[in-house]
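Think of the structure tokens as a kind of shorthand, similar to the way a musician reads notation: each symbol stands for something richer, in this case the local conformation of the backbone. In the example below we present two proteins back to back. Begin with the first one, reading the sequence and then the tokens, and try to describe in your own words what changes along the chain.
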Amino acid sequence: MACIYLPSLLGPLAGYLVDRLPRQRLIVLLNLCTAAVVCTLVLVRDRDQIWLLLTAMTAYGTSLVLLGPAETALFTHTFPTALRQQVNG
């Protein structure tokens, strides 16, 4: 659990970073990288390779921290205010 939630400590830095990058590209790139990292889990065969599992979990947690603000910001720029108010209400 620590591997997934530990990156959330970098939440403010993630928001700052997301504000300076193109959001659509960031979301696509993060999802592709996360898929690639998760696919490496098929390589785990015994206890000596547990580091692959921990690395994948940390990368997944980092991806979640970055995707949250990126999706929120993209939602804000994509839809008009009236539609956002209906959806959020």
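Once you have a description of the first chain, move to the second and do the same.
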Amino acid sequence: LSSHDAAAAPGALGRALRRHHGVLLGNGAFAARPGTQLTSEWLAEVERRLDGFAPDLARYPGNIMGDNPGYPIPWGDLLGAVVQPLSLKHRDRLISDPRMLPSLKDFR
């Protein structure tokens, strides 16, 4: 919706995400075909990050909301911080459709 909604990233990547925020996948709802370059890179990066968090997760496993003391994974580290740079990289293969906008009414 605005450049402030782009994932936080340092340096040139952060500037590119803010500048091209209009082509980024939203974190609320999206669909993807399995086995594409985007989904393969996405899964590989999430698994790489989870491997890095594994020692701390063993000591501080999350509760249902992931807000317990010591829980090591910041809210956006496995979604926006991964999918937004990849959506910028693969933007020529993405389609934005307003029908995919989620309803945030009573979402919990």
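Compare your description with these statements about the second chain. The mean pLDDT is 88.
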